[in-house]
Amino acid sequence: MLRFPVRATCMAFRKSRMALPRDEPTSARRAGPKMRRPTKRMMTSSDTPIPPRPMLPSPPAPGRYAYKQACRFVFGFLVLLLVAGGLKAAWASSGSAHLAGFLPAVEATILDGLRREELDRGVVRIAADTNGFLTVAAVTVALSGAPSLSKLETYVGRLVRTAFRAVPFLDEVDVTVLGRHPVSLADLEDVIFTAAASRSEVLSAPVNLPPADLVRELRRVWAHPLLERPTERLREASRAQLGFGEGSPALLHTALGTLRDLSDRLRGHLLGQVVSSKLYRASRGRRAVALTFDDGPLPLYTPLLLDTLGRLGLRATFFLIGRRVEQYPYFAAALVQSGHELGNHSYSHRNLTGLSFDVVHEDLRRAQEAIFYATGHMPRLFRPPGGRYDPTVVNAATALGMLTVLWTDNPGDFQGLPPQRLKTRLLSRIYSGGIILLHQGMPQTLRILPEVSQVLHRLGYTVTTVTGLLHPTDVRARWPSHPPSR
């Protein structure tokens, strides 16, 4: 029997397999030993080395961190102040004027005319408006240093002539000159010179008349007595306007006063008579209302308001601010000449509550003095600024012979409401013996007066002054027999 050499054959096959190259597999099914996949990518020589992770610094202490943040905030705030101051100084030095926008074409034309004459350097605001019959422009100028009266008159004369030449249909130009100072005192305006010129006054003057002489011939001109002494002028103005720092009354005193005032207010509205030297509403027995205007006198809108009321045949009560009466005495005098009634609205238009009797009395006395020397009439009516009062304010007004007057109808014309909404709010609160509160300087008020007058006349109401509402026995205040002493 023939034997197959199994052992020799296996050894020969093993030797032949070992002779083959390592990278050539012997079959497609078995390509070599199975390699384990690494868990991480192995870095080769061509790869960029990975930098070590940086170590984060330890957080600073809480106190030190807050200190650094506070320093950064203060530094940023100082930088912001410097930038804002630089922008403000650049704007002021550029002489760019703010246009109010009531009559944009007229305001822009006046500004162009002033620029051609090189008079726009100190102009800060130009406003123009009309009531349909009278067109008035108001120009506000701010001048640095202490200009002399002759230089001011020359400048104002040239400005007025230029404005009338630029706008042929302009009827009046009101000029207000402010003193410009490096440091401003709150909202204090340093008015040093005012003038109002009509077209007839300027056109009737000779063409070759010097500008200063033209201003001297105007009927409506005022110059500050301390014009060429700015330090004394600012000291006196700041003392009059900012000298109210005596604190507020005690809480119990205020609460008791509020309760007592609620009782007086209820009685005044129901009975329609003077209660505790205060008038909230007049008697209902007569179908009449009182028309009152607070603040002022003011350029631009006081002459427009006077012209409108004159055309409508209405008389009103004007509560004037003593400081503004000193600056525009000719407007206050025009109110009296037109048959209107004047009232005291304090001298500085500050909150008088919580002050001592002497301080309130002095403020009201100064306003009485200013109104008397401007108009020759002593007010016997007083309205507290903002309607804020306490027993001390009422007692001070009573001591000066004045009746404290409030209101029943406040449509809020100072809020800038549209004319239609303002008219609706005003007419919705009308009733006999009512007192309407409006303000000077509001263009919307000027717009609605003709329509309001027509509606009130159609409803059978008589529009009169505050004194015209009262029965002679209701007036507790008396006319002072002599002007207040200086």
Structural description of this entry:
The protein has 16 helices and 14 strands. It has two domains: 98-238, 2-Layer Sandwich (Alpha-Beta Plaits), CATH 3.30.70.1350; 254-474, Glycoside hydrolase/deacetylase (TIM Barrel, Alpha-Beta Barrel). Helix 3 crosses helix 4 (149-166) and helix 14 (419-427) packs across helix 15 (443-458). Helix 4 (149-166) links the parallel strand 3 (135-144) and strand 4 (172-180). The chain is 43% helix and 15% strand. The relative contact order is 0.09. The chain is extended and about 155 Å long. The strands form three sheets. A six-stranded mixed sheet has the order 1-2-3-4-5-6, with helices on both faces. With 486 residues, it is α/β, with parallel strands linked by helices.
Domain count:
2
Structural class: alpha/beta
* SS field, number of helical segments: 16
- How would you state the average pLDDT, rounded? 81
Number of strands: 14
> What is the end-to-end distance?
162 Å
Strand order of the largest sheet: 1-2-3-4-5-6
Summary, kept brief:
The strands form three sheets. This protein has a six-stranded mixed beta sheet, with helices on both faces. Helices cover 43% and strands 15% of the residues.
Features:
16 helices, 15% strand, TIM Barrel, five-stranded parallel sheet, Alpha-Beta Plaits, extended, alpha/beta, six-stranded mixed sheet, 486 residues, 2 domains
